[in-house]
Design brief:
- It is a single chain.
- The protein is α/β, with parallel strands linked by helices and 352 residues long.
- Helix content is 28%, strand content 25%.
- The protein contains 12 helices and 17 strands.
- A hairpin with a 5-residue loop joins strand 1 and strand 2.
- The longest helix has 13 residues.
Length: 352
Amino acid sequence: MIDGMKAITFAGFRDVEYKTVDDPRIEQPGDVIVRVTASSICGSDLHPYHEREEGLDYDTVMGHEFVGEVVEIGAEVAKIKVGDNIFCPFSTNCGRCYYCRIGLTSRCERGQLFGWVGMGEGLHGCQAEAVRVPLADTTLAVVPEGVTEEQALLLGDVTATGYFCAEQAGIHADGIYVVVGCGPVGIMAIIGARHLGAEMIYAVDTIPERLELARKAGAAPIDFSSEDPVLALHEAAEGRGADAVMEAVGSFESHRSAIELVRPGGTVSSVGVHTETAFAFTPAEAYDKNLTYKVGRCPARVYMERLAPFVRDGQLDITGVISHHFPLERGPEAYRLFDERRDQCTKVLLTP
């Protein structure tokens, strides 16, 4: 590699820069270096971008969704080879600790999130020409034959997270379901719920292009800006509300909507990254509704390989969420477009 690479780095409130940074290098014997062929901007990237999540060091390389080619391996890497085309979850995992063994790879005892460096400690992200991947043998997977680059990229985060959200909702064919928030994860929750057998799904949002994506994915759209979703659901569900609500935003308002939409004895499955300091419901409300509440980070490493055959065979049609492609050098512009939801932007891919 030449000395120095181009990357998108954190520069403060609503500010990222395209600049030259140090090349990633092998630091541990289980590391590999990946030449990034495509990365993307995720809704959760906007939390540090808006400083709703604080503590990210300036000049941290952003991003946690990527695919690429392995160009260098550490001395103890045994499964991953130079030249492999790989896809990756948004966090690393060791494959050996208790949480990895039970399939909760997102809570690996040695895991790190890509794109998060605080007080000098952490792991740089992938919106760059190259990225270091620790614990490579258990974090990375080779892209299966028949899976495209775009499909593989989406499998590492939004597809896995949306499907996880749907599974937590306990889908069955005769249930009534709602997805709150029709960004990429919400659309994947709809696709996942349909794949799991749901026949009646409602999708709540205010952005027309996202509601149209929800309709195409198989949900009945409800425009929150002009229609009361609680009233619409109660009419459809004989006054009860939804059997489960899939919350894919991560705000107080979306949380509150989910609680109001779910029926007594129902489930709220929440995968939106929350930065609030308190729940949008009280213990008394949860008790009075006999609420089942499931929340947390998706174990994407488990789901991405599991779902890849469904994507390859056309059972999960996932690439419709991609609206824009930008070269990496236009990353700051892409962030602004995505953040401001201009030009019907739903998902941006960046190409070094």
